[in-house]
Automatic annotation (TrEMBL):
Name used for this protein in its record: MYND-type domain-containing protein
PROSITE patterns to which the protein is assigned, alphabetical: ZF_MYND_2
UniProt cross-references to InterPro entries, sorted A to Z: Znf_MYND
Domain called MYND-type: residue spans: 18-53
Amino acid sequence: MAHSHGPTCIPPANPLLCAMCNEEGARCSGCLEVRYCSRSCQRSDWPVHKLVCKAFSEFSDASRPSIHHKRALVFAEDKDLPCFAWLHVQPREDNNEITSDDLEGKVPVPQLEPYLGTVEEFLSEGGTEREESTNPVLRRKIGHGITVAGRQRTNQIDSLPGSHRANKSLLAVDKELPEIWSGNVVAYGFMEDTERIQDLDLMDFRHVVDIIRHIYDHVRREYSGKIDGSTVTGAFIPCAAEEKLGCRVFEILPVSAAQCDAQSEVASPIMTRIGIPLVFRRLPLETRWRDRKLGLPRELIGWNPTLRPFDPTIPLCDRRHGVGSAVVVRKDGKPLCQTHVAAFVDYARNKVASYCHDNHETARGVLDSCTKEDFMVWYDGWKLQASCMDVDVPSPYDVEPDADQDLASATALAGME
């Protein structure tokens, strides 16, 4: 289940920026490597930074074994902590038979076999390489490329605890990360213009953690969105942190038709009252923003302001409700579109706003005022002002079912005859 990002301009690399946000920072007085804009950002990074800070001193330039060794990061399966390592780099021999462009298409070549096994073993066991030149959390250029290589276990992400040997050094970063990796994970740097391997440092360790978390979140979303059988057209609604990280407010995507018959995990009595009941499914909170401020109060990091107005009977900022991103479908299986989702959200907000600003209104009174007729009148006026939306779509009450849903319904009826 891929959630694309809105069009944002990625600024050029700036080595003066904080490791945790996009403000300028000063070098840490301890390690003299990582930059922080404030003590707050430094404290936020400390649980991750401390894992390798002390050991980094053993990998100074003076301790480099040769000019053919570059500083890399290894998340070893059997080690308690991630660590730096001297990665041997040598030119590729032209007469070698290359079995993978992904692994040996660069000159010179990092010698990964001590950590990942032979190329053949690596590829046959789910080995992948991910190259990044942009920090996916901060959405800014790093200044060089970083490759993360390891074996992914995407088909076993929800397997029972103990069903595989967990990577202990990844476990030190986040308890969830070993779910998708088997064996060691290695990260190394390269220059984008020449593809020459280059050293990684403590600032890069933060980038690597962000990249690995981003990979985990992506795989987790893909796995949780796996669809067996028929689909309907639903929408992804990001929480406040996801919006800050660039996710579109409403992303239309295929969803399993089985969700239409499930119990909604977010109450939406307003939608039931207007005759278009919705079914929401919450998604696991993302790992990539768990220690980031993102310009939001900490208690609101996972809050989903878009979901809250659908139920006026609970407080707007009650952390027990509306937390996290969600996928939504119509209970009747008819397709959602961005215009309709935006209209539903704005209608609910409008109703809740009247409740908040009018002391004579009660939550029950708000619900009583929500009817199909009331929504239709409001919707006609809303379309005149919604200049950024496709207002030529039919009314939500006139939408035809998805073809896939029609086929599933016909099959179900045939089975009942």
